[in-house]
Amino acid sequence: MVAISRRLRKVLKYLLLISCATLSIRYIHFCVLNYCITYEEYNLEKKYYNVSNDILHKYDELRRRNLRHGLKISSSSYHDNILDEEYDEVRESSNKENAVLLMLVRNWELSYALKSMRSLEDRFNRNYNYDWVFLNDVPFDAAFIEATTLMASGETKYALIPSSDWDRPDWIEDDIFEQSLNDMEKQNIIYGNSKSYRNMCRFNSGFFFRQKILDQYDYYFRVEPDVEYFCDFPYDPFQVMRQQNKKYGFVISLVEYESTIPTLWKTVREYIELNNDQTIDTSSDLYQFITDWNDIRTPRSRVEPTDRYNMCHFWSNFEIGDLNFFRSKEYIRFFDYLDSSGGFYYERWGDAPVHSIAAVLLLRENEIIHFDEIGYMHAPYFTIPQSEYFQLKQKCICDQTEEARIDFSGISCLTRWWKHGSGKKFMRETYQS
Ligand SMILES: Nc1nc2c(ncn2[C@@H]2O[C@H](COP(=O)(O)OP(=O)(O)O)[C@@H](O)[C@H]2O)c(=O)[nH]1
Ligand SMILES: [Mg+2]
C-alpha cells in the first residue's frame, strides 16, 4: 500500500511538473526589442511565414530558367529574341532608327495630347528620345507648342497641313454629301454627320505621309490624344520593323461598322479587277484574313474562299508603319482609285479599313507585324500581353475592366489574324509536329 502510494506520488509529481511546464511554455514570452509574443503566437507566425514563403518562391526556378533563356517567355509571343541580349546591346549603343512619333491633333486636345505623350515617354521614348511631329489643319497655338515641347524627350516639330490635303475636294457634290450627312445622322452612325471627321479620315488615308515635315523619316508611330500604354516596351518597335523588314505594325484588330463603308469593298474589288496585272494575290492567306467568314473559334473548320469583306481591319489609332510603303506608287494608285469614288464623303470611310485593305493587298504576309507585347488603351478598348509573367516583367499597370479587353471579344479579329496572318509561331510548330 505504502509502495503503491509512493509510486503514485511519483507519477503525480511528474504529472504536476509536466502541466507546470506546459502552462509556463504557453505563457512564456519571446521578446524582441519591445515586442513580445507568446510561444503559441510565435508558432503560428512561423507557420504563416513558411506557407507564404513557399508560395512566394514556388515558381522562382521556372522564372529564372525563363530569364536565362531570354524569351520565349510565354506561348503568346511570336518572337524568340525579344528581351534577350541582342536588343539590350543595341539599346545601350543608343542606335536610333530614322523614325518619328506622329500626332494629328487639335489645339483644344492639349491635355489629352500630353497624357498620351507622358505615357509613351515613360514606357518607351525616354530611353530613345525620338522626335515628335505634330500636324494640324489650323496653326498650333503657343500654349500647345510650349507644353508639348516640355513634355517630349526628343525634338518637337509642328506643321500646318495645306488645305489642299485636308479640305473636301471641289468635285464632291454638295447635295449628295449633305444627304449622306443627314442619312447617317438619322441612323445614329458614329461621327455620321461630321464633316471634319471625313476630312481627317481622308487625310489619314492619303495625305499624312506626303507632309514635307515627314520627308526625312522612314518610320512613323501614330499616337492619338487620350491613349495610354500600359507596359514598358520590351524593345524599340522601330528597330524590330527595320530588322525584320516589316512595313506595317498593329496591336488591335477588330471589325468595322458596316454602315460607314457600304461600297468600300465593291470599290476595292473593282480596283483589283482593273489591276489584275499587278501583284495582288487573292489566293493568299492574308487575303483570307479579310474575307474569311468562318467562325474562327472552330479550330478545324475549312476555309471556303469568299470575296466578301469580313470587316476585319487593324485599328489605326495605333500604327507603326514604313512611310515608304505609303509613299509607293502602288499605295498612291490604290488610294487615288478609292478617293475618286467619293466614298470618303458620300459614305464615311475610315482610314483604318483603307490602310488595312491596302496592307493586305499590297504587302507580303510577313511584312505585317502584330506587336503582341505592347499594352495599349484607346477608349473603349484595350489590349495587354496575355501572360502574367510578361505583365510583371514589363511593369504593366492596367486598371480597366475585363469588358474593355478586346482581344478575346466577339468583335476582335485577332484569332483570324493568328490563323491567316503571320500566325503565332507556336501554333504552326504545334500543328507541324
Ligand atoms: N487637327 C485636327 N485633328 C483632328 C480633327 N479631327 C480629328 N483629329 C485627330 O484625328 C485623330 C482621330 O480623331 P478622334 O477624335 O480621336 O477619332 P476616333 O479615334 O475615331 O474616335 C486624333 O488624333 C484627333 O486628334 C480635326 O478636325 N483637326
Ligand atoms: Mg481617337
Automatic annotation (TrEMBL):
Keywords recorded for this protein, A-Z: Glycosyltransferase, Signal-anchor, Transferase, Transmembrane
Subcellular location(s) of the protein: Membrane
Any single GO BP term: protein O-linked glycosylation
Domain of life: Eukaryota
Annotated TM spans: none
The keyword Cytoplasm appears for this protein: no
GO CC term, one of those recorded: membrane
Family assignment from sequence similarity: Belongs to the glycosyltransferase 15 family.
Name listed for the protein in its UniProt record: Similar to Saccharomyces cerevisiae YKR061W KTR2 Mannosyltransferase involved in N-linked protein glycosylation
Organism of origin: Maudiozyma barnettii
